[in-house]
Structures are given as structure tokens and as C-alpha cells.
Amino acid sequence: MTTLGQALDELVATVESRASADPSTSYTAKLIASGPARCAKKLGEEAVETALAAVSDTSTLAEESADLLYHLIVTLKACNVPPSAIADALARRRAQSGLEEKAGRGS
Question: Which fold has domain 4-81?
Fold first, then answer.
């Protein structure tokens, strides 16, 4: 069985390999070529669909979550943010409770 971490590592590698492909043959390349704003718009759409699945149709929640994670990785790539930056942020946050972390952000 594949872990979520393994699947995400494979997804990152796939997005990396397809980012510079011909946009006429690769959806990933087409999204990235359209720029960060378009990628972010698709990410937002997928986030809404995932949230709706969570409250209305959990039978589609895994598929919607997969779409959301794909669009997050594509958006990170379009914005030149390496996935390791997310891993580093998560590692820093593990050292404190979620309530402490939120309080530290300010208003």
C-alpha cells in the first residue's frame, strides 16, 4: 500500500517532469504556462469542491482531495515555491500546538 507521503513525492516528481513539456500535450504544462493566477484559481475551485464533498458526498472526498493536492503542487511549481518549503513549515509547526501556532500569527 502506498502512503500519502509516497504518493505526494511521486506527484511532485510527475509535476516537475511535465512542467516543461509541450502545453498542447500536457495539462500540467498548460496550467503552469498560464501563470500563477490561473493555477491559484484552479486550486481555489478544487478547494471548494473538496469542502463540499466533505459535507455532502463523502464518497467523492478522496477523489476531490487528490485533485486538490495536484492543483496545490502545480500552484507551488508555478509560484517557484519548492515542496520542501512546505515540509519545513510543517516541521516547525510540529514543535507547538495548533492553538499556539495560530496565536503566534497575530490578527
Answer: Helix Hairpins (1.10.287)
